[in-house]
Write a structure and sequence with these properties.
By secondary structure, the chain is mainly α. It is built from 2 helices and no strands. The chain is elongated and about 60 Å long.
Length: 69
């Protein structure tokens, strides 16, 4: 598994485990709020989801609208 794929999968797994913990009786919801926010922010971009910016032309070289040149 590529390093980016592994990081993404590990972070998603941790978020899932945290969600299960939050549903348990007696769970520390302040902890859940703090950690879930941190994990969500650190969630890497899904591998292969978006092309590299330097080689990507979203319009395929065409103008954005017929009137644009």
């Amino acid at each position: 598994m590529c390093p980016d794929c592994e990081d993404f999968a590990r972070t998603v797994l941790l978020l899932g485990q945290l969600a299960l913990y939050a549903d348990m009786a007696g769970a520390d919801l302040d902890f859940v709020d703090a950690v879930s926010t941190s994990l969500a922010v650190s969630l890497p971009e899904p591998p292969g989801m978006f092309p590299d910016d330097q080689d990507h032309d979203p319009d395929g070289g065409r103008p954005a609208s017929p009137g644009d040149v």
